[in-house]
Specification:
With 410 residues, this protein is α/β, with parallel strands linked by helices. It has 2 domains: 137 residues, Urease, subunit C, domain 1, CATH 2.30.40.10; 249 residues, TIM Barrel. Helix content is 33%, strand content 24%. The chain is built from 16 helices and 18 strands. Strands 1, 2, 3, 4, 5, 14, 15, 16, 17 and 18 form a 10-stranded mixed β-sheet that branches. Helix 3 packs across helix 16. The longest helix has 16 residues. It is globular, with a radius of gyration of 21 Å. The protein starts with a strand and ends in a 13-residue tail after the last helix.
Length: 410
């Protein structure tokens, strides 16, 4: 196995600085050094930018399928449960269930890989996903406590609110829940319910939060909880998203997640762009590309208590690398405008999972099983066999199914 290698001639975005024409050395699964060279050097000919790989904090690995299912005739849902009922009675749900759960999980894995993501939270209880996520070539977060939502009609995931939250505190885990995802009185009382049960604290990772009052925002800020912003899904289901400007002005830790493609954006790259678009329309001003960048790197690493290992490029951290062909000189603008085909190399723990043909020796040297594919007319290498996956899915459903988040040229 090729235990160590270096990339040189790359511009590296570290926390607080942009190092032009620099280098990075990987030893086994970690970053050993940034800025100096030694052995096994791969000189990068093009002007490429290097970032930490993206973190997607909210995805539904069994539910990444198309088309979307949403409210009828320009209306919106009262809360998430109405969408859930529509989904489970829709023809696409019946079609989706013709596939094996393993193939649906693999499909979701590729949704994230093609978008530069190697760390994901699949928001399902471990009893439902453990057998499907073990052995994946990307990192799926497993250390968390969970309840589905803060309401009496929530799906019966995990144990009770108090038991799950206690588990989070005792193990220093994040406590994840859908929060204030709707407009009925009970759903909008989520923060009061958490507070009443002594479960509102800095372990909380609160997803959606579209029903937050100004007082809710103050309470979340005071305890140091995290808000997960999913504008694509929010606007599609409810025609509104959270009070994101006030949440940011309160210096709350904000992350971006994709939610399921049944309701959200096709991947995290599109979600980042949509977030900027929605913010601009709501507030008639721009949210900075740097803010968006942090929402899919260091902020989620903090929320999930994994910042010692991922979220930034630093010596000793996991070698989760995203090397891109930039479309803008500014590193943050280049990042938020990234297209799937412009990813030159993506690694998880130093192992390549997606990249251009010139990195084939790295795939081989690391013992990665891969296939050659064409992504929007560009030749690429990718871990596993997404073409074989699509053949199985098409056989299962009986027609030439396509997904926007699997950008393979036929």
């Amino acid at each position: 196995m090729k235990e160590s290698y270096s990339l040189s001639g790359v511009s590296i975005l570290t926390e607080g600085s942009f190092l032009e024409n620099s280098s990075i050395k990987i030893n086994r699964d970690k970053i050993e050094d940034i800025g100096s060279l030694s052995g096994n050097n791969m000189k990068i000919k093009d002007n490429l930018y290097l970032y930490p790989a993206i973190i997607n904090v909210h995805d539904h690995f069994r539910g990444n399928y198309l088309p979307k299912v949403g409210p009828k005739n320009g209306t919106f849902y009262l809360n998430w449960s109405y969408w859930d009922n529509d989904l489970k009675s829709a023809p696409v749900y019946e079609e989706r269930e013709k596939n094996t759960v393993e193939d649906l999980y693999t499909l979701s894995m590729y949704k994230n890989i093609f978008a530069g993501v190697v760390t994901v939270n699949d928001h399902y209880p471990h009893a439902l996903n453990e057998q499907y996520i073990s052995g994946m070539p990307i990192r799926l977060i497993t250390n968390y406590a969970i309840v589905h939502a803060i309401s009496s009609f929530a799906l019966k995931w995990g144990d009770s609110l108090k038991v799950e939250h206690k588990r989070a505190v005792e193990n220093n885990f994040p406590f994840i829940t859908h929060c204030a995802e709707g407009f009925d009185e009970e759903t909008q009382s989520a923060i009061k319910t958490l507070e009443k049960n002594k479960c509102l604290d800095d372990h909380d990772v609160l997803i959606h939060c579209i029903g937050f009052s100004d007082e809710d925002i103050k309470k979340v800020q005071k305890v140091g909880a995290t808000v997960v912003w999913c504008p694509g899904s929010n606007m599609y289901m409810f025609n509104v998203t959270c009070k994101i400007k006030k949440i940011l002005e309160a210096h709350i830790n904000v992350c971006i997640g994709t939610d399921s493609t049944h309701s959200g954006s096709i991947n995290i790259l599109e979600e980042m762009r949509f977030a900027r678009e929605v913010y601009g329309k709501m507030y008639k001003e721009e949210i900075s590309p740097e803010s968006i960048y942090k929402m899919v790197t260091i902020n989620p690493a903090r929320a999930f208590r994994i910042q010692p290992d991922v979220g930034t490029l630093e010596n000793g951290k996991q070698a989760d690398l995203l090397l891109i062909k930039p479309g803008d000189q500014d590193p943050y603008k280049a990042f938020v405008n990234l297209q799937m085909e412009d990813i030159e190399l993506l690694t998880c723990k130093g192992n390549p999972v997606y990249g251009s043909l010139e990195y084939e020796e790295l795939f081989k040297g690391r013992g990665v099983e891969y296939t050659k594919v064409k992504v929007r007319k560009k030749n690429k290498l990718i871990v596993g066999d997404p073409v074989g996956l699509m053949k199985r899915i098409r056989k299962a459903v009986g027609f030439e199914k396509v997904f926007d988040f699997i950008p393979l040229d036929d």
